[in-house]
Amino acid sequence: METINTIGRRKAAVARVYVYDGKGQITVNHKDYKEYFPQETLQYVIEQPIKIVEVEGKYDIKVNLDGGGFKGQAEALRLGIARALVKIDPECKPLLRSHGLLTRDPREVERKKPGQPKARKRFQFSKR
What we know:
Blueprint: E1 4-10, E2 13-21, E3 26-28, E4 31-32, H1 33-36, H2 40-53, E5 59-66, H3 70-88, H4 93-98
Parallel strand pairs: 3-5
Antiparallel strand pairs: 1-2, 2-5, 3-4
Helix pairs in contact: 2-3
């Protein structure tokens, strides 16, 4: 199998994912994913598409992550892995879609408005 590459995005995070035959190793920015994401909840998020399709230990995954925070990066990586698994085996697309793993979350940070401290927060009103 040749290397499959996909991209996953979430908020400001971009994950470039490369999947090839291997022993199930996931490398994020030249580190093991458990070292890069020490929180178990984020590790679970990353493993979701692999466990749903039941291909643990079958593919090695190399990832270049850029931008955003840890949660956004983990969810971008999840989308990238799910898209790669669909490229490898189109049969698993309905299964991943039913779990909501192929939908890019479109929510972004709302811009700050002029004359306000944040996007919606106003400065304190004073009548006098």
